[in-house]
Amino acid sequence: MSTLFDLTGKTAVAIGGNSVLGASMAKGLSAHGAKVAIVGRNLEKANSVVEEIKANGGEAKAFQADVVSRESLQQAAADIEAWSGGWDILLNAPGKNSATPFFELDMEEWDDIMDVNLKGIVITCQIFAKKMIEQGRQGSIINISSVSSTTPLSKVFTYSVSKAGLNSVTQFLAREFASDGIRVNAIIPGFFPAEQNRKILSEERIESIMTHTPMNRFGEPEELQGAAVWLASDKASSFVTGTMIRVDGGFGSMTI
C-alpha cells in the first residue's frame, strides 16, 4: 500500500499548470514523485510554480505554450521530450470564463472561450496522446471539468457548454485510447475561487453557492490533489477510465 500512489519515475505534463488549481495539482503530483512540466502562456507564472516545486525537493521545468496554437503546443511537446524523454501523465487544466448574458453574447467571445476550454484540449490530446502511443507509454490523461458541465450554472452560458463538451471528449477518448493502455478521466471541481475571483463574487452569489453546497464552504486548491494523484497512479486507478470524479463539497448531490 505504501507504493500505491508512488509516481516516482513518471513525468507529468501540466497544461495550465501555472493557474491556481493547475499549480496545486501539479504540486501534488510532484510531491508523490513525478517530474513535472509546467506549461502555460505566462512563463513568469509557470516559473514561479517550478520554483515552489523545486523548493520542496521536486523536479520541474516551465514551458511556454498557448492551447489555441497547435504550433506552440507542438514546440512545447518537442521541448518537453528533449527534457524528459517523454511523459506518462497529461493534466489538462486551462480555463476561461465570462459572465456575459446570453443575449449579449457575441460569437467572438463564444469562440474565444470554446477555443481555450474545448478545442484547446482536443488539440493538446492530439499532440501529447499521440506521442504517448508512439512511444508505447501507458498512462493517464486528466481533464479538469466543472460542476456546470452537468447542471448548467446561471451567468456562465458558454463556459457551461464548453465543459459539457469536455465531458463528452473525456468519455470518447477513454474508449479511443483504452487499447493503448491510456486512461482518460475528468475531475469535476466545485467552487474553488482564487483570491482574485472572490472579489467579483457578490454576497448574493456566494449565498446561493453555499445553499447548494452541503459542506457550506469553498474548496481549497490543495483538496484537488488527492483526486489528481489517484487518477495519475497506474496502480491506484488502473481500472478507472471514462469517469467524472466530483470534488465539489456535495454540490452535485443537491436538489432542493
Blueprint (SSEs and pairs):
Blueprint: E1 11-15, H1 20-31, E2 35-40, H2 43-55, E3 60-64, H3 70-84, E4 89-92, H4 107-134, E5 139-144, H5 157-177, E6 182-189, H6 195-198, H7 203-211, H8 225-232, E7 244-247
Parallel strand pairs: 1-2, 1-4, 2-3, 4-5, 5-6, 6-7
Helix pairs in contact: 1-2, 1-8, 3-4, 4-5
What characteristics describe this protein?
256 residues; Rossmann fold; seven-stranded parallel β-sheet; 8 helices; 7 strands; 15% strand
Describe this structure in words.
By secondary structure, the chain is an alpha/beta fold. The chain has eight helices and seven strands. It has a seven-stranded parallel β-sheet with strand order 3-2-1-4-5-6-7, sandwiched between helices. α4 (107-134) links the parallel β4 (89-92) and β5. The relative contact order is 0.15. Belongs to the short-chain dehydrogenases/reductases (SDR) family. InterPro entries: NAD(P)-bd_dom_sf (IPR036291), Sc_DH/Rdtase_CS (IPR020904), SDR_fam (IPR002347). Keywords: Oxidoreductase.
Q: In short, what is this structure?
A:
By secondary structure, the chain is an alpha/beta fold.
Strand order of the largest sheet: 3-2-1-4-5-6-7
Shape designation:
globular
What is the subunit arrangement here?
Answer: single chain
Helix content range of the residues, please?
A: 40-55%
Main pleated-sheet profile: 7 strands, parallel
Kindly identify the CATH topology: Rossmann fold
Uncertain runs with pLDDT below 50, 5 residues or more?
none
Name of the CATH class: Alpha Beta
**Overall number of structural domains:** 1
